[in-house]
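Re: the multi-chain job from yesterday

Posting the exact lines I submitted so nobody has to dig through the queue logs.
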Amino acid sequence: MRFTSFLQDKQLTVALTGEIDHHCAKDYISSIASKIEVYTPQTCILDFQEVTFMDSSGIAVVINALRSMTRINGQLFLTGLNKQPMKVFRASGIDKLVEIKEAVS
Amino acid sequence: MKFENYMILEFPSKSANESFARAAVACFAAQLDPTMEELGDIRTAVSEAVTNCIVHAYPNDIGLITLRCRILKDNTLDIVIKDKGIGIPDLEQALKPMFTTGGFERSGMGFTIMESFMTSFSVTSQPGKGTSVHMRRKLQRRK
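And the result, structure tokens for all chains:
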């Protein structure tokens, strides 16, 4: 697991990288949860631009981030989704729970 | 012989092998000249099935996972992923979307994804003896 994050104007951006599967999901879930807890941002953006593969473990990552943000009355957005992760999100219906924004160039 | 080619892999149920298993199947499938999307679908389905073995079949110990891939004559990839774990007591319930016994880090979408990403999908399980997932994906011929 490797990710970068930055906070600007109460907006937390977390850029995920590589392949997201069950092997690394737990670490992603707890790292994102603790970032949200520490910074209490108004919005959190999960950036998937550098994610090359994701299975249903990625859904759990998003659901847990959504829970953390809902708890502090914040909003969660996803961005930069490649075709393969997008297909997994669509199959799970999570694209109806979380707003997916276009990639920021 | 009904199939053109095959491979069999056996590996312990360690989560580091999830990426190995899907990469191995993708490499084997490459001889069918799949599209990027087809390859993505196959890798996702394999990842789900292998993860199920690791999380559910062998919850407290490390056991063996067997993966068999065959190329059938009609450009179809046939995959069987088998374990000798604890089995699934209620298969009907396990197949329901969002149902999971795996805790917060699981989404309960594994079987749903295998079913929607592959051409055919079936699972058989015997409590105490193990589970076997059989999937097929027919690939478009590119000319």
